[in-house]
Design brief:
Number of domains of chain A: 2
InterPro entries (chains A, B): DUF4743, NUDIX_hydrolase-like_dom_sf, NUDIX_hydrolase_dom
Pfam families (chains A, B): DUF4743
CATH superfamily of the largest domain in chain A: Nucleoside Triphosphate Pyrophosphohydrolase
CATH architecture of the largest domain in chain A: Alpha-Beta Complex
Structural class of chain A: alpha+beta
Shape of chain A: globular
Helix content of chain A: 25-40%
GO molecular function (chains A, B): 8-oxo-dGDP phosphatase activity
Number of helices of chain A: 10
Largest sheet of chain A: 7 strands, mixed
Oligomer: homodimer
Protein name (chains A, B): Nudix hydrolase domain-containing protein
Chain lengths: 301, 301
């Protein structure tokens, strides 16, 4: 049955998660972040002046672009040159994103299939609008009578980001030089105590992509999605403390929850994609069906 | 294993199918086609002068838009007013697209979830860049040992469009006022003699969207996709003569074929989406994985 209010809440979520594309976003005021003539991100207007104080690393803005100095001509030199500046900025400026410094290195490249041009501290990527990649796992069960339920995680109340909100059973960012399936196995083990013997049965089912901006910066993300049917007698358990509790919920209840503020927004999109692929949303009864699918795959040209 | 040549051929196909978005396309020269202030299409530069000869229906271009005259203030008046002009244009101008007149009415609206503002002859939609919707079915089998094969159709050599090319087991455009599942059941029966008792087991799995332009016009399309696992002892049969033959091919062979010119391009995208959702393409071995997914979901803002 069509549920107009549900559709409208989901469309609103998709607009929020793609706010960078909307008229009036900071996009028109951003500087392109270029390395060797190739764009790898968008630098928000409040960030550019902090960077161009360091002309030994960042060339002054020209034609709407901030570039790295040509002397930084290798992966290592670029990475270390930028990291040194970011360490200074972190000490001297109050940028809330850098307060979440994680010592996690993310690869920076124009497209995922391109060789990385440098690495960058994860917490700094939003200051450069550098594309981030991650892995999200839909953990679910199918009862003997065919009823589908999903395992959801409740994030720890002390997490830096989105504390206390609902999350996928396991998820994590893709660090430099680490494989996608490897990341999946690691996050399944660490976050949900799902052993590799089970987690390796997860199979890839696509990606979602979105770009939003806020006071901190530009968040351009793509997530690699996996489905993992969990045995009926298996229960995820709290692992590294990022999660406070796991719930097994009937898929109809999950469908209601993704349209609420109780869900971490990008995890709600992951579940939305699951609901569409598994026919829990049908095009004849959901008038916005095609818009929902399109909203899960917005990409920057 | 990564197959660089395959990836490159698929990326080229995705670029072709989204050529309207590329720099240098006719997009910058197109007029917006607007009804009641809402954009419903793009009119190519060679078409606009043919339409504005009829000021009783089309207002002269203004601010880059061609609009319907305000006197056409209802669904019926707009539909009949435009249809009368198109019948004249069809007789008096040599437009190859109108030679394919089908007497099939497509709905015209800004978004699928909006109420239709008029209907338009299917063959004319590309002259207005009006968004078209259709249904495509992935017919496949799973052997007792778990091997997946796909049923593909070879289009009749006498088809108006894409004669002799490979196609999905069943597909069809969505006519005005006809439901999506209804269209699926009809096309399964007519094109492939798949009875409703089997076809109704098809389940929706998402959409693909793309926009290309060529000498004929602008083709903005979204397809509603369904997976249909066919019984091992069932064979599709040639129905209405749109197909000359059906083949059951191992999925590996299908994967090779989608990267060849032997496939009708949009049907190749349907199969690509199937291959991704069913993990026949894996992100760790396909560097362009995320680009492939994104290329299947390009939409006009």
């Amino acid at each position: 049955m069509a549920n107009f209010a549900w559709s409208q809440r989901i469309l609103k979520l998709l607009r929020q998660m793609n706010s960078f594309y909307l008229p009036g976003s900071c996009r028109t005021d951003c500087f392109r972040f270029e390395i060797d003539g190739a764009q790898v991100g968008w630098i928000p207007p409040h960030v550019a002046p902090l960077l161009t104080r360091y002309p030994e690393v960042f060339s002054p803005p020209q034609d709407g672009a901030v570039t790295l100095c040509p002397s930084l001509d290798s992966y290592e030199r670029r990475s270390e040159g930028v990291d040194a500046i970011l360490q200074t900025v972190r000490r001297e400026c109050s940028l809330s994103s850098l307060e979440g410094w994680r010592d996690e290195r993310y690869s920076v490249m124009p497209k995922f299939s391109d060789p990385p041009l440098m690495w960058m501290e994860r917490a700094a990527t939003c200051l450069f609008g550098v594309k981030r990649y991650g892995v999200h796992v839909n953990g679910y069960t199918v009862s003997d009578s065919g009823e589908v339920s999903m395992w959801l995680a409740r994030r720890s109340a002390t997490k830096q980001t989105y504390p206390g909100l609902l999350d996928n059973v396991a998820a994590g960012g893709l660090a430099a030089d680490i494989g996608i399936k490897h990341t999946l196995l690691k996050e399944c083990q660490e976050e949900a105590c799902i052993p590799a013997a089970i987690a390796k049965k997860a199979h890839p089912v696509g990606t979602i992509s979105y770009t939003y901006s806020n006071d901190e910066g530009v968040f351009a993300e793509s997530q690699f999605l996996f489905d993992l049917e969990l045995p009926l007698d298996f229960q995820p358990r709290v692992g590294d403390g990022e999660v406070q509790e796991f719930y097994l919920l009937p898929v109809d209840q999950v469908k209601e929850l993704v349209a609420t503020d109780d869900f971490k927004p990008n995890c709600a999109l992951v579940v939305l994609d699951f609901l569409i692929r598994h026919s829990f949303i049908e095009p004849d009864s959901e008038p916005c069906y095609q818009e929902l699918v399109a909203g899960l795959h917005q990409t920057l040209e």
